Amino acid sequence: MKKRLLLVCLLVLAFSVVGVSRAQDLSGQLEIFSWWAGDEGPALEALIALYNEQNPNVEVINATVTGGSGVNARAVLKTRMLGGTPPDTFQVHAGEELTGTWVVADRMENLADLYAAQGWNDAFPADLINLLTVDGGIYSVPVNIHRSNVLWYNPAKIEEWGVSVPATWDEFLAACPTFQEAGVTPLVIGEAWTVNHLWESVALGVLGADGWAGIWTGATSPNGPEMTAVWDRFGEVLACSNIGEDSAGLSWQQAIDQVVAGTAAFNIMGDWAAGYMTTTLQLEPGTGFGYAAAPDTAGNFLWLSDSFGLPVGAPNRDNAIAWLELLGSVEGQNAFNPLKGSIPARVDAVAAAPELYNAYLQSAASDWSSNRLVGSLVHGTAANERFMGDFNQVMEIYLASRSSSAAANAMAAVCVTSGACGGM
Ligand code: GAL
Hints:
This protein is of the alpha/beta class and 424 residues long. It is built from 19 helices and 14 strands. Helix 11 crosses helix 19.
């Protein structure tokens, strides 16, 4: 018995020595490229701190390009990737943004061996791994799951105004004049991409999960009557917003600030807003801020996942692999997600440390395991970059013309040029 104990102790010692010496072997730099700057930074910084602890001889370069949803970072990344100067690793959404953009262009290394070595094939949901997979190769490591279709509000203000949180757009539109008469913006929107973000929740509400998923398989016509109904409803919702007033100058955080201050009643944003309100503004979920599924979308979880990959030609490949190993570990996911407002992509991480996850995150985790899951357009899950980029023009056409049929026809054209809408 004593001998066995000794053997176990020796083995533990041997493994930890290997672990330590391997970490100490790594040196040089690691450039991590993302759009998590400023208020979006704390979760990434927590991960980097862990990496520094494990790899004290590696100098981490935290290369961020500001701009919500990566609007600016993706353009810079494209220039670097095409110019042959990739970072060591970069943030990329799981799904089409990864596979339909970088994998298809042979710019990413296959991580299937790393997945096998780390036991990740069972640690991440199979459906998520599928979205990272092309012809048996797996091309990035997911760090989180975010939810796009969330309605945020200030519970104290809602009580003061004597209104209820709308479960449907009809309820919201009925309450809209009350807010407007009181000088409160019913629904606050920010800069251009946040308008698209609102649109995807409205579209999911009108089309339902099957109809939304059908856009990407060709089952839902982009210019059929269901889609014109989406644009009609979107127009009604916009009429109860600040569009054309201060919207274009607001970041997503500034839009949330208006809800917190009570100058706006509601905002629809992904749950990085929960991260911002808890980590930066130090508000408590449930009391400091309230949340509900976007109108008409209860039971549906419009999801996206931030992941990191290994570009071909990464200058510091071993350091990048150590970063990916950390991202995919329970420890890494539990350092990152409680600060970020997201839930871990790993199926076992919340159970390993439930005390780290606040009431909002617990509710997101429970919805993630019980709701119907549908992929986000704006955050890379559902459509390739070509479609995502060109959708901006569809939106511009709609905002300039306010014509549902013009927007629907423009979207049909984008479906054809991008090849993103299944059978089209
Ligand atoms: C999303 C990203 C989130 C958050 C958000 C706002 O695309 O997945 O992690 O950063 O943009 O910038």
